[in-house]
Write a structure and sequence with these properties.
Blueprint: H1 5-28, H2 31-48, H3 56-86, H4 96-114, H5 118-128, H6 134-141, H7 145-164
Helix pairs in contact: 1-2, 1-3, 2-3, 3-4, 5-7, 6-7
């Protein structure tokens, strides 16, 4: 990071951190989460090397709102995982370490699927999770068979590209 951005971030932090934490607290109803996400917001600014903002609070709100959505998604995934393993016999329950790896993987899959257009994602999930055939998906979604096939091919290319072509 350039040294010229350090004072800008420091000034943003001093001038807006308390406000941002209050804004987050009002939305989350949890002071610990608000404090964590306020810090994470400024970490993002440092990572992006933000130097000057015309509307700092609008920018901070936008970054923080994304972090809030990520937090809620993670908690939904964690809750679903815990409900799933609660149904398993104790002897078959995975270790906490395995659970964390599964949650991280599910978060990555969620982000990957979220990048797809809604119709593409829905067709893909119906095929992959429900085991539906393309003709059944077309009927259910009210689209042509060729549209469903294009949607699924697009989703598979997206998954492949992000899985195998992304730098590690």
């Amino acid at each position: 990071m350039s040294s010229s951005s350090d004072p800008a971030i420091g000034r943003l932090y001093v001038e807006h951190h308390r406000w941002l934490q209050g804004w987050l607290q009002a939305r989350l109803n949890n002071s610990a989460d608000a404090a964590d996400l306020a810090q994470d917001t400024f970490v993002r600014l440092l990572q992006r090397r933000v130097e000057a903002l015309v509307e700092p609070r609008a920018y901070l709100r936008t970054v923080a709102r994304g972090l809030v959505i990520d937090l809620w998604r993670r908690r939904d995934i964690e809750r679903a995982w815990l409900e799933t393993i609660a149904r398993l016999p104790e002897a078959e329950a995975p270790s906490p370490e395995t659970g964390l790896l599964v949650i991280e993987s599910l978060m990555a899959i969620d982000r990957l699927l979220d990048e797809l257009p809604a119709a593409v994602r829905e067709a893909f999930l119906l095929a992959q999770l429900e085991g539906m055939t393309c003709p059944k998906i077309a009927e259910r979604l009210g689209v042509s068979l060729s549209t469903v096939e294009r949607h699924i091919a697009k989703a598979l290319r997206h998954c492949y590209r992000l899985t195998f072509e992304s730098p590690a």
